[in-house]
């Protein structure tokens, strides 16, 4: 029983540590989004009001997935993500949506 509990504790630690996106990965992903902002259809304000929810490279394909979540004052906006795929730093897929003019006073 003690071994089983230890196993599940180690497994939980592994997944929580593995789920974190490093600052280096976040910055690299944001720079990639900034370079492709015209193609993606995002303004500088859109990029500034975004959070990198996740980013990773799909093994053996060299495709970087980037989940860019809309935010307001660093608070995530629920269900508004741009899911971007880059191959060799070129945008190959762009899905998702944003609330336009979200930061404008009403």
Helical segment count: 4
Number of distinct beta strands: 4
Low-confidence stretches: none
| CA-based shape | globular
The percent range for strand residues is 35-45%
Question: What does the radius of gyration come to?
Answer: 17 Å
Mean pLDDT: 84
In whole angstroms, the N-to-C terminal distance is 59 Å
The helix-strand sequence is: HHHHEEEE
SS-derived structural category? alpha+beta
Strand order of the largest sheet: 1-2-3-4
In brief, what are we looking at here?
This protein has 106 residues and is of the alpha+beta class. Helix content is 37%, strand content 37%. It has four helices and four strands, in the order ααααββββ.
């Amino acid at each position: 029983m003690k071994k089983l509990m230890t196993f599940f504790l180690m497994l939980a630690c592994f997944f929580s540590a593995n789920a974190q996106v490093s600052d280096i990965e976040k910055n690299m992903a944001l720079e990639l989004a900034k370079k492709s902002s015209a193609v993606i259809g995002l303004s500088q304000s859109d990029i500034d009001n975004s959070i990198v929810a996740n980013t990773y490279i799909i093994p053996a394909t060299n495709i970087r997935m980037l989940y860019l979540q809309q935010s307001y004052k660093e608070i995530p906006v629920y269900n508004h993500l741009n899911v971007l795929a880059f191959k060799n730093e070129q945008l190959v897929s762009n899905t998702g949506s944003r609330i336009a003019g979200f930061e404008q006073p009403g």
